[in-house]
């Protein structure tokens, strides 16, 4: 896969965060969701990035008897994703007990984005709200 430098700069933290769903430990849902929520991608594109870019590289860790549990090497992960020539033709299934991480992650992303939107509205209100003029009494 080929990405412009700016696109790669945006995707790299997403790939690293989403790879946590494939570790042999419980993901830090809030941290992964906050990284996804901060990205410019909509929910359907985040799902596509997960399944078409990250999943093909790290899915085998879910099947390993003693899988990686402390995080994938970030440089290896990015290099492996970039080395893929195309999107997968067929998506491999997740093991049954790990089939729901996207269903778990998606509401966290939506919630994190609502929190960011609420904070942004409050900041915009503060800066655009007319201020009382203090003058001579």
How would you describe this protein?
There is one protein chain. The model has no long low-confidence stretch (mean pLDDT 81). Helices cover 57% and strands 0% of the residues. The N and C termini lie far apart (68 Å). The protein has helices at residues 5-19, 29-37, 43-58, 74-83, 101-128. The longest helix is centred in the C-terminal third of the chain and has 28 residues, at 101-128. It is built from five helices and no strands. The chain is globular and about 75 Å long. The chain is mainly alpha-helical.
Structure in a nutshell:
With 137 residues, the protein is mostly helical. It is built from 5 helices and no strands.
């Amino acid at each position: 896969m080929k990405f412009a430098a700016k696109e790669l700069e945006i995707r790299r933290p997403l790939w690293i965060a989403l790879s946590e769903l494939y570790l042999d430990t419980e993901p830090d849902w809030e941290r992964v969701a906050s990284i996804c929520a901060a990205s410019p991608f909509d929910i359907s594109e985040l799902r596509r990035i997960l399944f078409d870019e990250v999943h093909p590289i790290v899915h085998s860790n879910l099947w390993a008897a003693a899988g990686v549990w402390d995080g994938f090497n970030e440089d290896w992960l990015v290099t492996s994703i970039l080395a893929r020539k195309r999107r997968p033709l067929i998506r491999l299934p997740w093991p049954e007990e790990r089939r729901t991480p996207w269903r778990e992650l998606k509401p966290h992303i939506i919630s994190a984005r609502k929190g960011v939107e609420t904070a942004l509205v409050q900041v915009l209100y503060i800066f655009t709200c007319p201020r009382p003029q203090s003058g001579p009494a």
